[in-house]
Amino acid sequence: MAKYVLSRFFQMGVVFLLFLVLSYILFDAIPGNAFQSLLLNPSLPDYAYDQVVELYGLNEPLLTRIQNYVINFFKGILVILIFNFLKLL
Questions:
Q1: Phi, psi (5° rounding) for residue 57?
Q2: In the chain, what are the domain boundaries?
Q3: What number of other Cβ atoms are within 10 A of residue 58's Cβ?
């Protein structure tokens, strides 16, 4: 029984990781990016858009961005879980 439960948890983890990666790839496939609206502001200097893109890592390769997304996702979850646990004490 324990072997079955462990295998199901492993499968759940694999499916969750696949979900994270595929959802990021789908959002990345949308034309443009979240900061293209900055280009519509005429008072913004030309280099500001490039600085924002570099700041958020949108100029890095796709595999690097996916890796950063998954790592930061789990870091964020751990911080929230620890914070909520400490509030309960």
A1: 75, 20
A2: 2-88
A3: 13
In the block, residue with structure tokens 């499916």: 15
pLDDT (tens digit, 0 to 9) for every residue of the chain, 89 residues total?
999 999 999 999 999 999 999 999 998 888 877 777 777 888 888 788 888 888 888 889 999 999 988 998 888 876 776 776 677 66
The angle subtended at Cα 69 by Cα 55 and Cα 51, nearest 5°, is 10
d(CA 89, CA 50): 45
pTM: 0.72
Q: How far apart are CA 28 and CA 17, in angstroms?
A: 17
Q: Residue 28 corresponds to which amino acid? A: D
* Cα 83 from Cα 29, distance rounded (Å): 34
For residue 66, the Cα-to-chain-centroid distance in whole angstroms is: 7
In the block, which residue shows the tokens 């199901």? 8
Lookup result for tokens 């595929």:
22
